[in-house]
Description:
The protein is built from 20 helices and 18 strands. By secondary structure, the chain is an alpha/beta fold.
Amino acid sequence: MSILRFKNADCKNCYKCLRECPVKAISMINNQAQIIDDLCILCGKCTNICPQNAKEVINTISNVKELLSSNKDVIASVAPSFIANFNVSNFEVLRAALIDLGFKDAFETAVGAKYVDGEYIRILNIEKYPNFITSCCPSVNYLIQKYYPKALKYLAPVDSPMVAHAKMIKKNHDCYVVFIGPCIAKKDEAHKNEAVDEALTFVELSEMFNEKNIDLKKYSEIKATDEYNSGRFYPVDRGIIKSIKTYDPNYEYVAVSGISECIDFLEHIDSVHGMFVEMNACPHSCVNGPAGINSGEGCIKSIERVRKYTKNTGVNPIDVSKYDIDASKEFKAYDIDYKIPTETEIRQILQTFGKYTKEDELNCGACGYQTCRDKAIAVYNNKAEKEMCLPFMKEQAVSLSNEVIKNSPNGIISLDENNIILDCNERAKVLLGIDQVVKKKNIGDVREMSDIALYLINKKAIDVNNAHISKTKRDVEVTSVYVKNAKINFAIIRDCTLEEEHKKKLKEYRENTINLTNSVIDKQMRTVQEIASLLGETTAETKLAIYKLRQILIDNEGK
């Protein structure tokens, strides 16, 4: 099931999504961005970066509504970052609103987070890992499974808090479980785990509240419970570490957030030892999730909300020991079909977009790939097209434009908005009798252009026939076009001197023909009249026919 996709026809080939994608799981085929599901880690960076809003996250509201309309209870598991996304004072406020929405009940996923804490401690008491990576973030898990399988031996074999909490809920309830949070990857994780029946984002939940006219302010007087749960720290940096509280002296506890930072760590993970790594795909962790509600206050304010809420609510620590679930998880490497071409094949592909030497490889990143070689490999795997190289396409366009102007049989002159000459090809110089460099001069300062200057500076489309160039004694046809967006006016000057000479000769020929015809007609008329008189027939019809013939010849003169 595709969680992410791009809308057709919205893509403007800016390659911004590809530049932002940390694993380049986006293909550009036929000028359209497409998510490559097998390569995507669902970090959601592309969803928030697209200037055309061409991204589309699968909407599961209808699926949740179907569950709510069933005969079975539906219980919500709500991510602890809710406090940073909704204007509520405590979870009980949101719980009441969810019940009014149709849920049987709602609980904090932080309960599952606390259970996962215990699993981490239990596992490390049994076995000493060289390094230990938390398994709470599905995007990080996908990153390791798809791109860094060597690090699987360090990944905690434990369910995420979402899955663990769903198992805990179903241990005591015969129900459907719907997870609600700021994460896109959780939708995919939910679909791959039978413990979670569906996943909503906070954005989707907000839509459902609006549809039912549920205003959270209505529940503002509801008080919080006295239960304290350190698992509520999970959505901020070092939140997992802070929640655990029991530290193994054999490990250094560090937090790594942001895919780029995670990749950097995974690249060098075998060179470190004794690291307990809290790893999250989103910078600042889950409070900065891609499907959260943007309050405009920034991540620091969101972090403050989470920390204050966790510290200031509840006095009785939650006890998760009463739950007995299997929270173990086996992570396996994905089989990624990504071919690496030979050096010869890479060089051949590079040459198709103008990279013949190392110096030609600008590695500018405009196409979205860090290096020209990376882009060539993507082309080899049908993920990219050679036309994505913007410097190459610009050079081609400029070169083609220059060649067209240079070799055009017509004169071409262009001006900027201040009537400064930007270009004037050789043909234009010949037609106008120019023997000097005119580029960067004001057209008013070039005497030879006086015959066409008015057409060029009008800043509107003009077609002029039979303009006469006094210096070269040429008759020309001028087409003037103003490109408003670029503020450039240009003229195409076509030499029609031979055409005018031809027209003059044709006119003279027609006049001579008409004169000769008149003479012949006069003679023939006399002869016809004589014959008609002898035959006793009227000449009216004959005269009419002959005069019509003459009129036709006269009317065609000049055509």
